[in-house]
Amino acid sequence: PVRCPVPASHRALPPPQGFPGAGQAPGAPYGQPPPGGPYGGPIPAQLPGSRPGSVGPTPPGGRNAPPGVDPEAFSWFQAVDADRSGYISVKELKQALVNSNWSTFNDETCLLMINMFDKTRSGRIDVYGFSALLRFIQQWKNLFQQYDRDQSGSISFSELQQAFSQMGYNLSPQFSQLLLARYAQRSSHPSIQLDRFIQICMQLQSVTDAFREKDTGLVGNVRLSYEDFLTMVVTRML
Amino acid sequence: MAFPGQPVPGGGFYQGGYGGAPGGPTFPGQAQDPLYGYFAAVAGQDGQIDADELQRCLTQSGIAGAYKPFNLETCRLMISMLDRDMSGTLGFNEFKELWAVVNGWKQHFVSFDNDRSGTVDRQELEKALMNMGFRLSPQAVTAITRRYSTRGKITFDDYIACCVKLRALTECFRRRDTSQQGFVNFQYDDFIQCVMSV
């Protein structure tokens, strides 16, 4: 029988959707910020760095934050909302988030995250959604750093294996291999950046939930028609 | 049971198996194949192409026609659709297969893009998918059209990405439906692998 991932109370497993996260300062890829820094210009290249012991300078603004919104999150919202629409789109979000190798977050991950915090199904998020999103990213970033044992800035095959195991998943090495072939840069030591790591974990959680919903007897096995299969996957993965 | 994605008679999505070994040594006649020219121009010594090279290759071959060339993520998806050895790359035979498949989809798109705008609307996408044989539930259609449309329009690139995903999922399912009944018993591990590899 399948060993289902440990319940959300486990420290290592991110809580289910809705994330009552700790309101920490949003994180940036670790290591030094790029020369010229992210703090110049109207749109930051990345969210402020979380160097040990410091919160990082906040972009100007942040005054008149809506009730319940952290002023720092609000000032970032204003900075990322390039067209001043009052909402953040996938495109705007993508430009604000970078991996440790300075590549911007991929479209798929940005889309998944926007959809998660977009209550109106409009394809964009307001300041409240964005504020929750920042906390969400910080939590994932913390996990990522935890699993990146050699602090290389990306997650290797063995680190991914261990991440899954610690999260409570019982998945084959072949599966990790498959993910690396699919998502890592082609190199002698393929590894996964933060954006893909977030994407993988979000999707894994989502399809596991979908599977568990159908597996009422908890036998680790479900019988699906072609149409059910497509519906399940398409509604959870896209 | 006939599986969707199969073109009208004459096409060959599933016939002939999966083609020869990925990459590998040249075979007689390969050099004469016009597609080989595009492929060889970007493939390295290993006779394989990755997503970047595929993007270049497809752009140069002009398969996108009047439409904008594919974005990198779509190319990555296309590779994973045919990448049986899970190497993250395609050999020439896999490339040829991809070419035929994409061409088929392109014909379909063109037939729906009446105003030649390079985009189709949601209803047209739904019709096109049904036409290709994908039997989708209303929720699936909603999820798909929401995911792939921008301001109510679906570009050629996104349309291809959508077809690739549906085909890959279908193939995953079909391989496991040994009795061809339209039902599969999935173990959790296998399900996850199937779904996340798309």
Structure characterization notes:
With 238 residues, chain A is mostly helical. Chain A has a domain at 71-235: EF-hand (Recoverin, domain 1, Orthogonal Bundle), CATH 1.10.238.10. Chain A has helices at residues 71-80, 90-96, 107-117, 127-147, 157-167, 173-183, 194-214, 226-237; strands at 88-89, 124-125, 221-225. A two-stranded antiparallel sheet of chain A has the order 1-2. In chain A, helix 2 packs across helix 3 and helix 7 (194-214) runs antiparallel to helix 8 (226-237). Chain A is globular, with a radius of gyration of 19 Å. The model of chain A is unreliable at 1-56 (pLDDT under 50). In chain B, helix 1 packs across helix 2. A two-stranded antiparallel sheet of chain B has the order 1-2. Chain B has 198 residues and is mainly α. Chain B is globular and about 45 Å long. Residues 5-26 of chain B have low confidence and may be disordered. The relative contact order of chain B is 0.14. Chain B has a single domain (34-39, 46-178, 190-197), classed as Recoverin, domain 1 (Orthogonal Bundle). Classes of the chains: A mainly alpha (238), B mainly alpha (198). Strand 3 of chain A pairs antiparallel with strand 3 (183-187) of chain B.
Helix content of chain A: 40-55%
Oligomerization category of the chains in this entry? heterodimer
Q: Which blocks of ≥5 consecutive residues of chain A have pLDDT under 50?
A: 1-56
Strand order of the largest sheet of chain A: 1-2
Helix-strand topology string of chain A: HEHHEHHHHEH
Give the beta-strand count of chain B: 3
User: Uncertain spans of chain B, ≥5 residues at pLDDT below 50?
Assistant: 5-26
Main sheet makeup of chain B = 2 strands, antiparallel
Structure annotation, total helices of chain B: 8
CATH T-level topology of chain B: Recoverin, domain 1
Q: SS-based structural class of chain B? A: mainly alpha
CATH class of the domain at 71-235 in chain A: Mainly Alpha
Distance between the termini of chain A: 28 Å
Spatial sequence of strands, sheet with the most strands of chain B: 1-2
What share of the residues of chain B does DSSP label as strand, in percent? 5-15%
Q: Please work out how many helical segments of chain A DSSP would assign.
A: 8
Main location (chain B): cytoplasm
Membrane topology (chain B): Peripheral membrane protein
Organism (chain B): Nyctibius grandis
Keywords (chain B): Calcium, Cytoplasm, Membrane, Metal-binding, Repeat
